[in-house]
Amino acid sequence: MGERYHLEPQTGVGFTLERGRLLKISDPRGEQVSDLTAFAREDVSEWLSSGRTIDYANTIYLTAGHVLYSNRSRPMFTIVEDTVGRHDFLLTPCSRETFALLYDFHDYHPSCFENLTRHLAAFGITPDAIPTTLNVFMNVNVLPSGALRILPPRSRPGDHLLLRAEMDLIVGVTACSAELSNNGRFKPIDIEIHAMEAEVADPAPGHAVPATRASA
Ligand SMILES: [Zn+2]
After folding, report:
1. Which pLDDT tens digit goes with each residue over 50-69?
2. How far apart are alpha carbons 150 and 191 in whole angstroms?
3. How far is the CA of 177 from the centre of ligand 1 (A)?
């Protein structure tokens, strides 16, 4: 059994993830967003890029089969399984300024940005390096006018997103702290890391089928 992390509501975690390992982000209670970011372990100036990923996928709605790219156009993750089918990669992690500017809330408020910066500092990642996050389970509709509308997540208890690391990574994950994104209630997030399992993983493109399968 691999590593596991249980994120209490409005918290986060940072960890390293080896190439080929599987990262499962689960929503145990439903309707809870989880922000994900990543950096190349060998050089943290390479980071998970919303812009590159959306360019190459040619869609803002990313799901199983899509590759998530770095700012250097190298694959960082492949989405292997997706039981929800709606996530957001347009919006930044919620921050104190988000709550002040969007919601006119000026006191202290926990945020994904604070949780990511706190847990990634040990890996040499500074606050200004935190990019647009993949907001797992976040449900953002784009209206014909171009306006964005944040709706309750479509995730139900036990839903998950499974990603395969395509390079050695430093990863940050949160249980999001924004009221509107989580239908007004803050819930936990569960994370599991597994070695690649043959029944889950597809062979990489261009690789031969193993010879052992040819003995019919
Ligand atoms: Zn958040």
Report:
1. 999 999 999 999 999 999 99
2. 24
3. 5
